[in-house]
TrEMBL record:
Name of the protein: Aldehyde dehydrogenase (NAD+)
Aldehyde dehydrogenase domain location: 15-477
Entry-linked InterPro entries: Ald_DH/histidinol_DH, Ald_DH_C, Ald_DH_CS_CYS, Ald_DH_CS_GLU, Ald_DH_N, Aldehyde_DH_dom
Family: Belongs to the aldehyde dehydrogenase family.
PANTHER family per record: ALDEHYDE DEHYDROGENASE-RELATED (PTHR11699)
Keyword Lipid biosynthesis listed: no
UniProt key word Oxidoreductase: yes
Pfam families in alphabetical order: Aldedh
UniProt keywords, alphabetically: Oxidoreductase
Recorded GO MF terms: oxidoreductase activity, acting on the aldehyde or oxo group of donors, NAD or NADP as acceptor
Domain of life: Bacteria
Active site (record annotation): E251
Amino acid sequence: MAEGIVDEILVGGVWRRGAGPLVESRSPVDGRVIAALHGADAADVDEAVRAGKAAAEDPAWRGLLPHQRAKFLVRIADGIAAAAEELARLQTLDTGKSINETRALVASAEGTFRYFAAALETVEESVTPSRGTYLTMSVHEPIGVVGAITPWNSPIASDAQKIAPALAAGNAVVLKPAEWTPLVSLRLGRIIHAAGLPAGLLSVLPGPGTVTGDAIVRHPGVGKVSFTGGTATGRAIGAAAAQKIMPVSLELGGKSPTIVFPDADLEQTLAGLLFGIFSSSGQSCIAGSRLFVHASVYREVVDALVDRARSLRVGPGDDPATQVAPLVAHAHRDKVAAMVDRARKEGAKVLCGGAAPEGEAYEKGAYYLPTILEGLPNDAETCQEEIFGPVLVALPFEDEDDLVAQANDSVYGLACGIWTRDYRKAARVARRIDAGTVWINTYKQFSVTTPFGGMKESGIGREKGREGIFGYMRQKSLYWELTEAPLPWAL
Ligand code: NDP
């Protein structure tokens, strides 16, 4: 086990060994076990939810005014800032991601807590137009205990995106990080714990999704689940939530189109396309994994892209020069490789990549080369299914209608990129594409102020933005009679 990593999880305010099975975290660089932790079992989940409920109902938390609650969020942000480099390195160790990316994720997590601390003070109750001699109001209250279930690709940013607004709204949180990457979430748990929140308000419960995650979703004391992960899991969680009539937010997968028109600035476009698919080694829900290029410039753009993709620097995450780091796990790399092999069988031409890199430095790592495919119809598996690796499939389009039909011919609707100098065309196309986020002449840029989420099978609900807090609240209407007159019916 890596030095300094202790076999303890946070259950209802207490750091202790989990009662669940051993969860191993392996280095994506060489496969060695870097941590082995006992995860949470259903009894741990029950204890965490009960403690969360008690903490959320305690006037010491529930009675705080927004500006008082905000102070805790600021303290958490300060804690993240103070441990920033350690958090980035830990996340690189666990996920394999490049250190530049994990530093950015830590900064984003810090910013998320600061933003929701500030946003919390802008949340207003409303006085609604009355239809009688009474005053009508709409108010928002905490839900109680929120379950937060996150994936392995950007743990600290996904965790913060759920914990910050949920705490801002006055809830307790039970967090379940992914089995492959529990370390940074546990470290974040220690920072939040140290910020002096009432004990029990946050639990961090690693463990297998089908055990720990499922126990959280089904627990009667959990009033909402906020989930980020794959569409199949999201569907299962949605079904379980329906049985409880429990609200859920689901941030799911994607197969996002990026579109190149003939008038696009080539340099800007190539940089954006490379970043859109190959940063995070393509392990990003918003990866621009389907490239549509206008037929008149298709060859020129795709050939230039292949040239650049071949010279991307593939290496270990802790080397600041690395652009494409190993994938999160060897098993995941093998899944990506198998999908590319199936693409070959479907008739794809592999323009670059399509294999693990060769050489001693890469032998033990979960590496896969940046890969560009072409020659497939849009209904091929490779063009329809999320690969979640450094694999781009290129397709030509003839005109705007053809483009929109192909781009929207997908069960997903998460993101889209449009590359053109013609802003009228961009505005038109952006409104016609089924996607929760559309980037125009840029890609994968994020602001915590701007709502994020998917359409279609990419999910329901929105995170971020001022309204993000309302996603963790229950709405209540209040009627205040202003006269002393009895209701006429009873007279
Ligand atoms: P999974 O859906 O397998 O896992 C996500 C989380 O859910 C993990 O913590 C997992 O636990 C847990 N889980 C698994 N099964 C259950 C269950 N039955 N009940 C409750 N929890 C469960 O996704 P991946 O790990 O494969 O993550 C990659 C996916 O996440 C991609 O499809 C990607 O598109 C999506 N994603 C979406 C984002 C968005 O905002 N739209 C952002 C980032 C990723 P464990 O791993 O321990 O089994």
